[in-house]
Amino acid sequence: MTHRPLTVAVVGATGVVGRTMIAVLREREFPIGELRLLASGRSAGAVVDVGGERIVVREAVADAFDGVDIALFSAGTEVSLELAPQAAARGATVIDNSNAWRMEPGIPLVVSQVNPDDLATHEGIIANPNCSTMQLVPLLMALRDTAGIDRVVVDTYQAVSGTGAEAIAELEAQILAHAQGTPKLANVYPHPIGFNALPEIDVFLDNGYTREEWKVLTESRKILHLPDLRLSCTAVRVPVLMSHSEAVHVETTRSITPEAAREAFAAIPGVIVRDDPQAHVYPLATEAAGRDEIFVGRVRQDQSVERGIAFWVVSDNVRKGAATNAVEIAEILVDRGWVAAASRRGAGVGDADRSAV
Ligand SMILES: NC(=O)c1ccc[n+]([C@@H]2O[C@H](COP(=O)([O-])OP(=O)(O)OC[C@H]3O[C@@H](n4cnc5c(N)ncnc54)[C@H](OP(=O)(O)O)[C@@H]3O)[C@@H](O)[C@H]2O)c1
Q: Is 175 close to ligand 1, i.e. is its CB under 6 Å away?
């Protein structure tokens, strides 16, 4: 199907995720008529070169969404809470990267390979999961569908790019300070991240988990349609620039061999199995960086339980973990005629006519 070019807004266009969204939209030749770049008032008037076209950044205010078909939000929770409903009220469909709407009943929380059908009923706001959840759930889906899942334990090793541009600069400055023998100043994190591992991502909750860990638990249950799934998570920030790594232990309902698990993982679109430990082949953060796929390896039987599989999963947190999945959602909306909110599409009729030329 060919589609009429859409007006697409990127909110947070000057940030780490926003800039990657612009790149991914171009790489995948998303049908864009007008690309509107929005950020805070601080960046208003800045000029961004997008494939030779010079686009002036505008301040993200409600009026900026007039005429927008799809708005990719990546400017933090406060901005999403305030502006996403206003953008949706103006007819835009928001795909939101923040934590603002993910657990809201009725708002689809979607990983493109796992639950695209959940998009059918959207009412103008769609949530993109947290990056740590994003790379985990396609693999859990494969195990859910082959062996059933009883319990999951996941420990994350998360890159500083997950915090944004300031955190990348802070790690680089601390590495330089180490080389020069000067003090490592910490502003973004409570301790120096250089040469460290910080078991604190986002705020601590009353139950002892951090909010990042809680997001992995609650978001996974929603995306997998397994509301009672037992999960636990420890989320750790490590001095890696790009790509999150995760050690995952899954207790399955029925027995599954590592060979069968690898086969099930390899069958998922966008998942690559890299698993030859004797040759030192397993997923690496540096190799996943800049890629859209999720890499899995070290697949083995978890010998501490009766039926268990353990594995190591790595993905670029800014691409599949944020920008790429958001653009994949937009592509699904276009392909299925679901760009407009369900109630605006009319009974049983997609917006294919609206989108098609
Ligand atoms: N990095 C990741 O791996 C990742 C993954 C998933 C989700 N996310 C989420 O994506 C969002 C952005 O992350 P990031 O890493 O791109 O952060 P970032 O590099 O710090 O960029 C933040 C962006 O938000 C804009 N912004 C800040 N305040 C604003 C306001 N009041 N109004 C409009 N725009 C405003 C900034 O514009 P100015 O340049 O004008 O300040 C900038 O474009 C966060 O919600 C984050 O949780 C990030």
A: no
Pairing of β 244-252 and β 149-158 = antiparallel
- Residue 223 Cα to chain centre, angstroms: 13
What pLDDT digit, counting tens, does each position of 127-157 carry?
Answer: 999 999 999 999 999 999 999 999 999 999 9
User: Which of 10, 74, 98, when mutated, tests ligand 1's pocket best, judged by the most ligand atoms within 8 Å of its CB?
Assistant: 74
pTM value is 0.95
**Rg of the chain (C-alpha set):** 21
* Coil/strand/helix, residue 348: coil
CA 60 – CA 94 distance, rounded (Å): 13
Nearest ligand 1 atom to the CA of 11 is 34
CA 17 to centroid of ligand 1, rounded, Å: 7
Nearest 5°: phi and psi at 309?
Answer: -125, 135
> 234: which strand partners?
155
Beta-carbon-side half-sphere exposure of residue 102 (alpha carbons within 13 Å): 26
pLDDT at residue 351, rounded to an integer = 46
More confident residue, 346 or 108: 108
